[in-house]
From TrEMBL:
Family matches, as SMART domains: C8, VWD, ZP
PANTHER family for the chain: ALPHA-TECTORIN-LIKE-RELATED, ENDOGLIN/TGF-BETA RECEPTOR TYPE III
Domain ZP: 522-776
One Pfam family here: Zona_pellucida
Residue ranges of domain VWFD in the record: 225-409
Lineage summary: Eukaryota, Metazoa, Chordata, Craniata, Vertebrata
Keywords: Disulfide bond, Signal
Record-given protein name: Seminal plasma glycoprotein 120
InterPro entries linked: Snake_toxin-like_sf (IPR045860), VWF/SSPO/ZAN-like_Cys-rich_dom (IPR014853), VWF_type-D (IPR001846), ZP-C (IPR055355), ZP-C_dom (IPR042235), ZP_dom (IPR001507)
Signal sequence, start to end: 1-17
Amino acid sequence: MLCPLLFLSAFILLAGAQKQTITKSSVLNISSCPITYYGQKYEQLYVNFTRQKIVFCFDHFYNPENKGDCIVGSSPNTMTADFDIIQADSFLDQWIRKKIQTIQNSLRCSVQITTQVRKSMITLALFNFGTEAALSLEAYTIGPVIYTGQVSKVVIDKVEVNNILESYQTDDILDISGCRHSGTVYKPGTVVNSNPQICSSVTCSETATLQTSGCGPLEHCQGNDICMLDTTCTVTGPIIDVHGQINSIQDRCAYSLFSTPSLPDFQVQGNFDDRRRKDVSFLDSVTLRVDGHDIHLEQGGRVQLNDSTLTLNSSSQLVHGVQLSKDQTGVTAKLSLSNLTISVFFDGDTAQIRLEGPAGSSVEGLCGNSSRSLRDLRLSEYSSTSCEMQYSETADSTINCTSVTERCNLLKEAPFSSCNSDIDPEPYITACTDTLCKYPAVDGLNCQFLKAYARACSLHDHTLDGWTSKTGCSSEAFCQDRTCSDHEFCGEKTVGGDTRCFCRAIFASKYQANNSLGDPTVCKQNSASLTLVGCLLEDKGIDYSTLHLKDPTCRGQVDELTHMVTFSFNSSNSCGTEVTANNSYIIYQNTIRSQNYSSDVITRNDQVQINFSCVHSQPNINTATFRIRDWSVAQHITSGAWNYTLTIKAYTDARRTQLVKWNTELQLNQKIWMELKTDGLDGNMVALVSKSCWATNKASPTSTPRHDLILNGCANRADRTVQVQENGLGTSTYFSFNMFRFTVGSADIFLHCQLHLCPKQGNNCIPTCSKAARRYRSASFTYEPEAPAFISVSWTY
């Protein structure tokens, strides 16, 4: 035993050429040779001198009330000590590891402190073996020395050296390696299986490396060493994912919120939209995609399966494997498999998605992997083409961000604080302040984040008694059972007051830019309509039910789905429409006015008067060819607002029952009845007028020779065979004449008619004709039995 001690003494004396003398309490820098003291690595050493002791502590200066990690020894004769850091030596390394066979690593360096206690020289050496460490205590001369090592008030080991002869040397080496976990120190080679009800075990390896096993940060112990995933994602406008990270949506697109590889045919989609501001988006609805079916959770607690609205109550209803229920707080959708449960709660403003399943289950989408870009998670096929456009608006000067922050920080106070250890309130506070510092605290938003946190806590069995009374909030869903259209959202008329449907900011902006309350007039050939936006009328304090056209019985019709109010008139009911015409246009004009409208100089009631009109161009001229033996000719005509078909037929009888066919024999001077009939015109609005008809022996209407049949809407008095049976009365014209042929040129006969559409209201469309007898026939034609019967018809309208 003498030789090893002499070797150690020689090592200390030879290697200690750069000693530092300590004369007072000091903090020593040992970062070049850190010591891992029972599993805790230290780079500083605190030295205290007292009358009774010299103390070396690793974490702070010695305090008898809080001893910490310290080595305590007897007080030296003088308040001095020598400090040195020694590099590793292979011989010393072998000697120590032979002495302490539990050490596995190689020596790297050592920290040595020497002082005199009474007649003894005491040298304390701390050896760095990486994750392991050892302590050496050497004493000269006679006298007892006490060494005690303490870790966090727990005595690890106690070494006592006594009965040392004056000229005799002795030593002791101590393994101070270990591992620490949750306030407990474990010696190397220790394996501890804790209670299986908390699913954890601790292993301190032979080289003092700590290894722990247990449930992950998103998991909880189900018992019997079984860990289960239990995690929640909260979506309002900001998204608080299962890791507590915040993501913010700036546009109005659809995004994948949640999916898991365990259920490849299931996805939760979030649809975002604007409300009072164009630059702030909120969650507007949630869509569950289950095996090709879409279940939509919408505002007001409405649930739709594809395009059908479901009726729900507190009792679960199974729809495509999803349990759906509804109460005063919102709608819950729950999907359960053998070892996996997904529940989605939506109250019209906030969605909370909870996954319970076996350890290792992963979450994808905005609720799971925040590292993916928003573009990757955007669902373009379910988004509008303009949803990505972002807007900027001036800051709301009425918002007091300091007051808002105080409100959001209530989540760190009682009763919310009782849940803080399980549910971190900071993401909810951040989402709350970020939103309410730029968006007014209306429409229940003042409580939305507090309510979301309270519900997340309830999922972990925290009731938070009294939170509603402290915050002035309600646990019930905001705007429950009020359904708004796609361009609306449900909001408060006054703070804390009644609710109604408001126009979304982006939708309303296109009307506000023109100072209008609705869309342009829709004009058709026999009707007109004007549609006003219901939510814009409410913004102006206008009750749509008090509005009417010039005829007070003509009131607006409300679309229950869009809340748009439409006023219209047509040929069956003109609703007081005034019609004017000139050579170029026909004008229909009406007015929407309030029930209490007055033309007096003064009034004490709100007045509404909205004028609207339709202007139709007079029709153009078109030409077609008609063969009597072809039975009939039909032409489709579109001109401005008019869209109709004109059919021309020839008959051999006055009742127009015997149609001229290809094999009908026609004789000169035989009477032919012509019918010009329209389909698609409203006879209450317009009448068809044949202003003139004439015959030529060429296809061109301007060719010669020419014989007139109808002039200015009346039969040509020069041809006594022409008779006009109906003209300007309805949407058809009838006239007759006797067959003839021209005496010069071609034997063909082409018939041309100029037609005119006459608005009936305010006009007499029937031509006024003279009753004078027709005295002569034009000399430019005569009767020839052998003449072929071909007629060409052209008309204008």
